[in-house]
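Sample 1 of the test manifest.
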Amino acid sequence: MTFLSYLISGISLGSIYAIIALGYTMVYGIAKMLNFAHGDVIMVGGYMSFIAMINFGWPPLLAVLFAIVVCTVLGILIEQLAYKPLRSAPPLAVLITAIGVSYFLQNAALLIFSANPKSYSSVIPFDALRLFNGQLVISGTTIVTIIVCIVIIIALNTIVNKTKIGKAMRAVSEDKDAAQLMGISVNKTISVTFAIGSALAAVAGVLLCSAYPILMPTTGAMPGIKAFTAAVFGGIGSIPGAFLGGILLGIIEILGKAYISTQLSDAIVFAVLIIILLVKPTGLLGKKVLVKV
Amino acid sequence: MLNVTGIQVFYGNIHAIKDVSFHVKEGEIVTLIGANGAGKSTILKTISGLIRPVSGTIEFLGQSIVNVSSHKIVHKGLVHCPEGRRLFLQMSVEENLEMGAYSREDFDMDAEIADVYQRFPRLKERRKQLAGSLSGGEQQMLAIGRAMMAKPSLLMLDEPSMGLAPILVEQIFEMIGGLNNSGTTILLVEQNAQMALSIADRGYVLETGSIVTTGNCTDLLNNERVKKAYLGG
């Protein structure tokens, strides 16, 4: 029974990683860049929902929507101001810029909200579910996190496979020039991708702070790195890969903490990543592209 | 319909296109022929906005398109079917066709796709397959089908015969003739000069970035220089 409870916590934590990893992987797939500021957008989402609930006294659902709107706008702004001017710059310049944006967001948060941790109250009002005569307790946050993740993955899959903009995203991801020759605006498509990724980051921020209720300017950094690992683990650029990678990473982390060592859990996570990449360099679901001439 | 005047294109220090001027009139098939590396593909990329010329003007339907971005040029009805096909290999045949029609609004997608399938029945058989799983010939059909989906008024085709068996080349060229008959103006870039000159109205011969000869196709087919260089004596 304890194993089951660990497994469920793992899936829940993994769901948060998966939602963040989706943002990483979509932006990578389409703009071919690693947006290292993505983790800090999570933190902004956390603070925005916190302010909306505590300072404005808004109900949780409205606070979540507020966080989503702010993060979406922030994501588009970051892309327009920091990354768009570097569209034809070498990848290293873009990478360094992304790290710069990440530090900028962390320090801006430090300036505005100070380094004092805020104690976040969960946005999820449901009571814990008690099963097997109370031997297995699953918190409302855990249940909602898993459900939200499943809804997001289904929605994203539908967008990417069925809608016009989603297909345009896949086209841009495969061949920018050819996509332009179809009449697709590459800039617009990249903007939409950043908007979706940042909205997901806001959701992840709210869920993360609900599960681990300490909010600081560096709150997004470590989950951001872990989710990036999850995206690489699953095969960067692949949406099902980000989902699978996130869930597996969450499970490995929680089980590692429970059965091996609390201190070593992060080391275990990254060791698994290294092994997977040695065996399958494209990640679990990464594609090898064959080109016919 | 298309007027290109005095364009100069550089790749770094390399002067790739030197003062090239030509035009295409509505309803024509015009071909640019020349050896590998003569600059044919570069000219098409410059017209479709993927490369910017250093100087010169490009007018389509009376409007300058020299500083218009690629995706907007497509919306004007000037469509470029690029060299090497450049299909979306991870997307299905049908999705590739849908992408071809991306620039259009208010039209019947199913009817247009059915029209392409009628011209290329092979594609219908493989509609759900990934484009990457098609043979070279099928991929070329898909590339042309995808370009047709945009309903171009001027279609630029870059090396449609490349890497294809002679029987397929015949089919593709018949197809191009058919498209032209149904009202599409065509600018055709080819290394296969014989085939290109056999269906085109006029041709331009390109050597190391400059136009060296021009004329209607019968004249070019009989031109000694063209014969020697491109038609095998």
